[in-house]
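Reviewer 2 asked us to include a model.

Predict the structure of this chain.
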Amino acid sequence: MTGRDWDKELAKIDKQLESVSDAQLFPQKPDARPSEIKRVEVQRETTSSWPALVRLALSVALGVGILFWPYANRCGVGLAGYLVAVTAVAASGVWSALWTWRHRTGRAHALSILLIVWGLILGATEVLPRIGYAKEKLTWSCTK
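Predicted model (structure tokens):
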């Protein structure tokens, strides 16, 4: 084909495209988002956020209360009990994070995530020196 034939072919394609509407060229799928948004709004209106906030308050109380741990936690059974309590702090942070996410309470969800991090930090300060990661070397048992 010569250059002239290409011009004719392209002109014919242009005419065909001009005769077709944009809706026929680019069909739009029905958008499911408005119904999803409406479902979330209805769910938010029908549920209250106070159960999530109660769970968060319990988790915060546990997270603050762990600072006042009354037992020896340097080794042995006391350490095991403390690590169980620290695990409970992190687990309660996850528990409250799930509920605050479901009830769309953003600030409460951020606080729940901070509780998870707080539990991980408390656990790391006790576990890492015992597995040889920190400068200070601690032992799991109380025997010397």
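The mean pLDDT is 85. The first helix runs from residue 3 to 19. We have added this to the supplementary material.
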